[in-house]
Amino acid sequence: MTPTTPFSTLDLAPIAQGQSISQTLENSRQMAVQAEQLGYQRIWLAEHHGMRGVGSSATSVVLGHIGAATNKIRIGSGGVMLPNHSPLIIAEQFGTLAALFPNRVDLGLGRAPGTDMATAKALRRNMQASVEDYPNDIRALQSYLGTPTPEQKILAIPGSDSHVPLWLLGSSLYSAQLAAQFGLPYSFASHFAPDALFDALNIYRSQFQPSAQLEQPYTMAGVMAVIADTDEEAQYLYTSLQQQFANLRRGANKPFARPVDDIHTVCSPAELSMIAHTLQYAIVGSPETAHKQLTTFIENTQIDEVIFSFPIHDQNARLHSMRLLANSPNMQSQV
To answer: Which pTM value belongs to this model?
Structure first.
């Protein structure tokens, strides 16, 4: 295990069953404040639309909320789904964030719509766009955020000359190849799409081309973390995430569920098998159990940074899980 592997957190702003969106956003603020205090490298929020269990659809707005509550932790998107937007609009939004929170903003980009197709159409995406538009949009975004040339007619104000660092996010080999081609840091969604993890990392590292932003390949991987004082309590809290993935498979759009005493009463064996495969890299257990699982993950992937999501219904238990991880030998070796 690399002793200096940084830890970060991905906050999906879960709208918990029985909770208001206002409380959800307050929870995100609390998570950011504690993450900064504990030494996490960055906190990112993800763009999803039309999901009753996710409150971060207006990603740049929520980033302003948590940026104002913190002082030094990096804030960013994990990610903005670029096909949903004009690159100019994203440059202006993140250029504004960079002006408000200098040297703290990351712009992670994804290619999926982050929603169902009906909602994607309501977002006014060009549904006929080819895959080639995504690389072109990234190039346009880089030009808007970079130093303008004399002949450049379109300027992002704010945004121009801000040099907000870009990341590419993905769960496929395509995103790994593109990140390598562009010379950008790469974050793989192993927290919900584990199958291509090692192939994607190998492709990215072997094909990486240095860029003005990045000289050497830099990799991050997502991990779900449900850590509690005991293995039994962690498994109980983990049932909320299991229900969420079962609901996704069923097409049931519901808030983030309360945990249950027996997951078999609400999920079928087939669903639990699917969930176990999808979440095979999840860290679930006591601090001792989590340390063993995480050490194995870092050693196997040789990842440069791990970004953790804490999918726990109760906010106090969620904050406690973040603290337990920060007190683990993995984290203590790098703070």
So the answer is: 0.93
User: Which whole-number Å values give the CA distances from 128 to 125, 132, 171, 208, 310, in the listed order?
Assistant: 9, 11, 22, 30, 36
User: For residue range 36-63, what is the model confidence (pLDDT) as tens digits?
Assistant: 999 999 999 999 998 999 999 999 999 9
Q: What is the DSSP letter of 123?
A: T
Q: How many whole angstroms separate alpha carbon 58 and alpha carbon 47?
A: 7
Task: Give pLDDT, residue 229.
Answer: 98
* Measured CA distances, 146 to 141, 143, 203, 213 (Å): 8, 5, 27, 11
Rounded Cα–Cα distance for residues 30 and 297 (Å) = 28
C-alpha to C-alpha distance for 224 and 311, rounded to whole angstroms? 7
Tell me the HSE value of 286 on the side-chain side, using a 13 A CA sphere.
Answer: 6
Task: Return d(Cα 62, Cα 53) in angstroms, integer.
Answer: 16
- Confidence at residue 331, expressed as pLDDT on a 0 to 100 scale: 64
| Closest among 309, 301, 298 to 334, alpha carbons compared | 298
* Cα–Cα distance, 86 to 107 (Å, whole number): 14
**Looking at residue 2, what is its pLDDT?**
40
Identify whether the C-beta of residue 312 lies closer than 8 Å to the C-beta of residue 220: no
Backbone angles phi, psi at 46, to 5 degrees: -110, 145
Percent of the chain's residues with pLDDT above 70: 93
